[in-house]
Specification:
It is a single chain. The chain is of the alpha+beta class and about 260 residues long. It has two domains: about 1-80 and about 215-255, no CATH class; about 85-210, no CATH class. The chain has helices at about 1-25, 45-55, 215-255; strands at about 35-45, 75-80, 85-90, 95-100, 105-110, 115, 125, 130, 135-140, 145, 150-155, 160, 165-170, 170-175, 180-185, 190, 195-200, 205, 210. The strands form six sheets. Strands 5, 6, 9, 10, 14, 15, 16 and 17 form an eight-stranded antiparallel beta sheet that branches. It has a three-stranded antiparallel beta sheet with strand order 11-12-13, with no helix packed on it. Helix 1 (about 1-25) packs antiparallel against helix 3.
């Protein structure tokens, strides 16, 4: 009976977290470069099994990064979906879109350190560096990209030219495992582990922006399913409560 209480409570907690994830996806359905999030739910036992398997493969792996819920043995982790978003033509020379099935990310230097993003809306700051709207610098293979001149062009493979002279090549990075990506703001990510490498398998479209990869209709369907599951767990919790009350009452009569 107590197991029933635990299962129903854990189910309600999981659905509450999933509802928050879906709500955030819907809120960013029109955000340039936003990556949809999904929820991975594991039991403590499953996590231990995975970690034990990893330890057998390499002794350098550690059990870090798991945020276990203190009131249950379920672990909730949101993971970014790296599918390609729709491309929107803007005509601005400083708008850049990655066209690579969602694999790569622009590398940017922020006040927090190196981060990664699909949002390709850039501008020139007062020093002539290509920066995001919040001032983070776009990185090339030789460092922050500076583009002072009148004729700014980016080739299909990311080579930046100013007035016909090659300046640098945009540094596009790829995560070996999307679960290593830690969200930093609405569209940027940090590397949870150093498993990031430079990519050569991409195309850049100048004068375009990649939109969010959220499908609002799918998210609404998912939200309705979450609500149904939450109600089902709520009913199960109520039924278990009634059974417990009945058992306590009968025990009292026996005494």
């Amino acid at each position: 009976m107590l197991d029933g209480f635990k299962s129903a409570t854990q189910g309600m907690m999981a659905m509450s977290v999933k509802q928050d994830v879906i709500a955030n996806n819907l809120a960013n359905a029109s955000t340039v470069g936003f990556r949809k999030e999904g929820l991975v739910i594991s039991s403590f036992t499953e996590i231990l099994d995975r970690e034990a398997s990893g330890m057998e493969q390499t002794s350098s792996e550690t059990m870090s990064g798991h945020q276990l819920q203190t009131s249950s043995d379920l672990h909730h982790k949101s993971v970014a979906h790296l599918s390609q978003g729709a491309l929107k033509e803007t005509g601005s020379a400083f708008d850049l879109a990655l066209d690579d099935n969602g694999k790569g990310l622009f590398t940017i230097k922020t006040s927090r350190g190196i981060e990664f993003t699909r949002a390709g809306k850039f501008r020139l700051n007062n020093q002539g560096f290509l920066v995001t709207p919040d001032g983070s610098q776009l990185m090339g293979h030789n460092g922050p990209i500076r583009a002072t001149g009148s004729d700014f062009k980016v080739s299909d493979n990311g080579v930046v030219s100013v007035d016909g002279k090659q300046v640098d090549r945009i540094l596009v990075s790829v995560f070996e495992d999307s679960e290593d990506m830690k969200r930093a703001g609405s569209t940027a990510f940090q590397a949870g582990t150093p498993k990031v490498r430079a990519s050569n398998d991409f195309h850049i479209k100048q004068g375009f922006l990649e939109m969010s990869n959220v499908n609002a209709l799918q998210e609404m369907v998912g939200l309705m399913q979450v609500m149904r599951n939450f109600e089902a767990n709520q009913k199960a919790l109520s039924a278990n409560d009634q059974r417990l009350q009945k058992a306590v009452s009968e025990l009292g009569r026996v005494r």
